[in-house]
Design goal:
Order of helices and strands: EEEHEEEEHHHEHEHEEHHEEEEEEEEEE
Strand order of the largest sheet: 7-8-9-3-10-11
Largest sheet: 6 strands, mixed
Strand content: 35-45%
Mean pLDDT: 92
Distance between the termini: 38 Å
Helix content: 10-25%
Radius of gyration: 24 Å
């Protein structure tokens, strides 16, 4: 594995910022640590970069030990590139000089050529003589990426790299950054609290909570097969409805019988909560099950309806926008989930 963390812990006083973190990231893959503020994701990134020691466990990259208790390579020895949230560009240097800054050990001509190659890669070849204040936020972030990639690091770390950008620019730039990293076959690890950003950039995503890793998986698996209720709640939109196990994996709900993933180990009579996503709830006028429209959000091609069942439970449903129903109307629905995920009610 190109990057491997094993049972890593970082403690500040009585607070375990990172607690037993273990995962592996293969060469050329883009990983992401995703979670709410304070979950430990940035501390984990700082441990990998060498800005924080570890109190337990070890970190390896490219078959080299980076750190363990009592031993740590300096950040400069780790061959890691870093892209910071605030870009950290030098205002008195040109774009080309910023990119070449970490190449001081190379001859001047080689530094210049490498900087120009990286600027061309990120689409800023015509801006080499500009200064950072003359660039937009998105352009500055691409300069920061070019600077991190210029020394040909074994690993690139990105700390909330798009958080200061507006939504439209963030979406576009996240796709551009992924394309650049993939074109160079660069192994990278991103930290973010934005799941759309994580899904747009990363091949594999780890959801963190209270310093621990809840699940390390492909975005599709996180969405459709969450390993914990926290992951199910945190990833995507969805609601839980009550159900009761009536046979192996079969769950009776007020809107019909469903078969839940992983439900075979529960005995009949067990009460569970089933996760339903908006795309699982289909508008069907012929259905015997009716629900009241409580809220609606127009999204162009679709409405996102909040629907109330007779019990008072609520569902979300994505419906083509030519089905224009008013709040208070009752509409027919049927459930067609690809994956029904259930958690035992506690």
């Amino acid at each position: 594995m190109w990057l491997e963390l094993h049972d890593v812990a970082r403690v500040f006083g009585t607070h375990r910022a990172v607690d037993g973190l273990s995962f592996q990231l293969g060469r050329g893959l883009i990983g992401c640590l995703l979670g709410p503020s304070g979950c430990g994701k940035t501390t984990a990134l700082r441990c990998i970069a060498g800005f924080e020691p570890v109190d337990r466990g070890w970190i390896r990259a490219h078959d080299r030990l980076l750190t363990q208790p009592g031993f740590a390579l300096s950040p400069s020895e780790r061959h890691v590139g870093m892209v910071f949230q605030d870009y950290a560009l030098f205002p008195h240097l040109t774009v080309a000089q910023n990119v070449a800054f970490g190449l001081h050990q190379l001859p001047a001509a080689v530094r210049t050529r490498r900087a120009e190659e990286m600027l061309a890669t990120v689409g800023l070849g015509d801006y080499r003589a500009h200064y950072p204040h003359q660039l937009s936020g998105g352009q500055q972030q691409r300069v920061a990426l070019a600077r991190a990639l210029a020394p040909e690091p074994e690993l690139v770390l990105l700390d909330e790299p798009f958080s200061s950008l507006d939504v439209e620019l963030r979406e576009r730039l996240s796709g551009e950054v992924r394309a650049v990293l993939k074109s160079l076959n660069t192994t990278a690890l991103l930290v973010t609290h934005d799941q759309q950003e994580a899904f747009a950039v990363a091949d594999v995503v780890g959801v963190m909570r209270n310093g621990r890793l809840e699940q390390w998986d492909a975005p599709y698996e996180l969405y459709h097969r969450p390993a914990s209720r926290f992951v199910a709640d945190f990833i995507g939109q969805g609601v839980f409805i009550a159900g009761e196990i009536v046979a192996s994996g079969a769950v009776q709900t007020e809107i019909g019988l469903m078969h839940a993933n992983g439900g075979g180990h529960w005995s009949p009579g067990t009460t569970v909560d089933l996760l339903l996503r908006p795309d699982d709830v289909i508008h069907d006028d012929a259905s015997e099950f009716r629900a009241e429209v409580c809220q609606r959000a127009f999204r162009g091609a679709e409405f996102l309806y909040t629907l109330k069942l007779p019990s008072g439970a609520r569902l979300l449903s994505l419906v083509p926008s030519h089905h224009n129903h008013a709040v208070g109307e009752h509409i027919g629905i049927r459930i067609e989930p690809d994956h029904v995920v259930a958690f035992e009610r506690t």
